[in-house]
What does this fold into?
Amino acid sequence: MTENPADNTTPTSEPTPTPEPTAGQRLGYLLGRTLPAELHPWVVADTTGPGATRRYATRCLIPLIPILVGLLLIPGPWIIRTGMVLLLFLPFVYFLLALKNIYLRHRLVSHGLDPALLNIHQRRRLDQEQASYESRYRSAP
It folds into this structure.
């Protein structure tokens, strides 16, 4: 008896990977365009998953680098050039981090997703802590 390879359909427990955007779609996403509905799980993972703050900061700081380098090339004492760079860079980073949730929430809303997804990991962690507390200290006698 020979086995038919088509009959070897064993279900796997691995979740199906979320589809990734193409290079053109990713570039459009970086420039503010919305992605198609089949890429919404990727958008949620990008805005709420691990490393979301790092990706957000990187995307915002990369366009600032040529401006900062240009300021460093202006003739004059190094203290003046460094001061110009710091006067631009420090408030930029402050407001970048202060407005992170607003921008990421806008990203979700512009894709037609629920803005409450932004706090899903924090909400899950708080629920786990509350359940742990209640099981430890509020158990029935």
